[in-house]
Specification:
The complex is a heterodimer of chains A (about 450) and B (about 80). Chain A has about 450 residues and is α+β, with helices and mostly antiparallel strands. Chain A has helices at about 15-25, 30-35, 35-40, 50-60, 140-150, 155-175, 235-240, 260-270, 285-295, 300, 325-345, 370-390, 425-440; strands at about 5-10, 70-75, 85-95, 95-105, 105-115, 130, 180-185, 195-205, 210-215, 220-225, 250, 275, 305-310, 355-360, 395-400. In chain A, the strands form two sheets. Chain A has a ten-stranded antiparallel β-sheet with strand order 1-3-4-5-2-7-10-9-8-6, covered by helices on one side. Chain A has a five-stranded parallel β-sheet with strand order 12-11-13-14-15, sandwiched between helices. Classes of the chains: A alpha+beta (about 450), B mainly alpha (about 80).
């Protein structure tokens, strides 16, 4: 065992390692190597194979005087990307080695290796629910050895075989082929038995698939998250080059902040003329304000192509008992009526059938009470527009419901901690929805 | 289960999940006070509590855990309702 207590080294995974590990493990999950696919996921770029990270940690930290690896536990907290610099911290504590891969202060992966005398093997076959016929591609392993300039100990073969299988299982075999490693642990030489899966359970509260298996006589426990589906191929970039909205006249309500502001910018960049009434421009005398606003922009409204109704309430963030009722009434008067009033004023002016898109309830990252007020205001407008559209069948009215903002890999917890930066992804989705509709 | 035993077991679970050596649970603690309490460790913590005490939380309960106190109180209620 090395006498070194602690070391920190630069850690960077090159794409060539990824390709070789893909070939070794046969894990063809697109989240690791397909750039186009990854761009459409919440990660935005390819993630390094979790098992490869563990493999590289082992290569970096394995004791010079080789002792048998008895136990291994890896926890994946944040994704690691290709060709990016990280720090690998290795701590030696007796027969234990603790590795952590960090980006600044953020711990991305932790791996705990335990080198101890071989545990007693429990003899006798175990009855699994699914037998495994798997062999890692050893040809690729030789290439990895050469690339890493690493003299592999024969005992490492078992570790590599198990790591490869874990990667293959989560990336390819796991139900729906949609899993990302959250954690795994391996107890080496625990059971003498044919390789098989002992148990599989899916916990829908956390989108978490847990699997217990025997691989190479070792007991393996895996926790893996269901992988979020990629969004549609189209993006703002493709929209900009397509000129689909060139010179189109678009009215956008609620365009002064949040999603509306980002959408307004994206549409303008794609060549559209966007009219986004500022919230403050429409005062308490909302009916006369809207009429004035429409009169001032009469020419624009006559040639309108698309109406995007996005405005919604912005209620006070105070306790109800402390809230000013006057402000609430002002808010209800202004925000909840604006979609309906504008829509009502514009319909008689239209010279050609316009597309009307109502942006319905949005999932936001903010506090629950704010979310509920948002949903209520959207619901009121949606109902009003539903009635108005029935009387105007020439209009092409559609309701667009926002996808959830993804907060982390679990897609379950800590939504409220997410920053609004992901709004661009939601804009991309909406724009691709618009584009698709234009084409059809 | 005695309250003291329950709190000691919870303390051990926290130490194990968050890899903490010297740690004493406190009802007012939130995720910000415990190093490493992120969404992944939150899941690990919930699953560990569930398997240790043989209880199961609903998603609503999980999202309602504002601090350690609420987590302990809901878990204790679950254990008591089993008896």
């Amino acid at each position: 065992m090395s006498l070194k207590k602690k070391s920190i080294v630069d850690f960077k995974v090159l794409s060539v390692y990824q390709d070789l590990f893909k070939s070794l493990s046969k894990d063809t999950s697109p989240v690791h190597t397909n750039l186009g696919y990854c761009r459409r996921t919440p990660f935005g770029k390819p993630i390094v194979f979790g098992a490869l990270v563990v493999f590289l940690c082992h290569r970096e930290s394995a004791p010079k005087i080789y002792r048998k690896l008895n136990f291994l536990k890896a926890i994946f907290k944040h994704p690691i990307f290709w060709d990016q610099h990280y720090q690998l911290k290795v701590e030696f504590q007796g027969a234990e080695i603790f590795c952590s891969v960090k980006s600044g202060n953020l711990i991305c992966v932790t791996v705990h290796f335990s080198y101890q005398p071989a545990s007693a093997i429990t003899r006798g076959a175990s009855k699994g629910i699914e037998h495994l016929a798997y062999r890692a591609n050893k040809g690729s392993l030789k290439k990895i050895d050469r690339l890493l300039n690493w003299k592999r100990h024969p005992q490492d073969n078992k570790l590599i075989e198990v790591l490869s299988w874990i990667s293959f299982y989560t990336g390819v075999i796991a139900p729906g082929r949609q899993a990302l490693l959250a954690e795994f642990e391996i107890e080496f030489d625990r059971i003498r038995s044919k390789s098989c899966i002992l148990d599989k359970k899916f916990d829908e509260r956390f989108n978490l698939l847990t699997t217990t298996a025997i691989v190479e006589n070792s007991l393996v426990k895996i926790g893996a998250f269901k992988r979020p589906s990629p969004v549609a191929e189209n993006s703002i970039e493709t929209l900009q080059s397509s000129n689909l909205f060139h010179n189109q006249k678009i009215l956008l309500t609620g365009g002064s902040r949040g999603f509306g502001l980002s959408l307004s910018k994206a549409l303008k960049q794609s060549g559209a003329h966007v009219l986004a009434p500022a919230r403050k421009a429409l005062d308490l005398e909302i009916i006369s304000s809207v009429k004035t606003f429409v009169r001032k922009n009469l020419k624009f409204f006559k040639d309108l192509d698309i109406i995007i109704l996005n405005a919604s309430g912005n209620f006070e963030k105070v306790k109800f008992a402390d809230a000013s009722i006057a402000k609430w009434l002002e808010e209800i008067n202004l925000e909840l009526k604006i979609n309906l009033l504008l829509f009502h004023e514009i319909i008689p002016l239209l010279k050609k059938p316009a597309r009307v898109i109502f942006i319905s309830s949005i999932y936001v990252k903010t506090e629950p009470h704010e979310l509920s007020s948002y949903v209520i205001s959207k619901a009121i407008s949606e109902l009003a527009i539903k009635y108005a559209s029935k009387e105007n069948p020439e209009l092409n009215v559609s309701v667009y419901r926002m996808p959830k903002f993804l907060s982390d890999r679990t897609n379950v917890l800590f939504k409220k901690n997410e920053e609004f930066s992901d709004v661009n992804k939601v804009v991309e989705r909406f724009v691709s929805f618009l584009q698709k509709n234009q084409e059809t | 289960m005695e309250v003291k035993d329950f709190e000691e077991t919870m303390n051990l679970i926290f130490k194990d999940v968050f890899s903490l050596r010297d740690f004493v649970l406190n009802n007012a603690m939130t995720a910000r006070d415990v190093p490493g309490w992120d969404s992944i460790n939150h899941i690990r913590l919930v699953l560990k509590i569930e398997s240790t005490f043989k209880v199961k939380f609903t998603i609503k309960e999980i999202q309602s855990f504002d601090n350690v106190g609420s987590l302990l109180s809901v878990t204790q209620k679950k254990i008591d309702s089993r008896l």
